[in-house]
Amino acid sequence: MVEMTFVEIVANVGFPIAVTIYLLTRFEGEIEKLEKAINNLSRKISNNQEDRG
Questions:
Q1: 47 burial via Cβ count (<10 Å: 0-12, 13-18, 19+)
Q2: What is the pLDDT of residues 40-50, one digit of tens each?
């Protein structure tokens, strides 16, 4: 069995974590926009159903 050094562990585990943090911060604004759009759509659908009923 091959033993991994500390540098190899950080390199293998640290890179995916760094990419995840980068992507989450980059897409945070887009996620907020999508959340607002979904809430607006939900509100409009509710208003439309109330108008019909």
A1: exposed
A2: 999 999 999 88
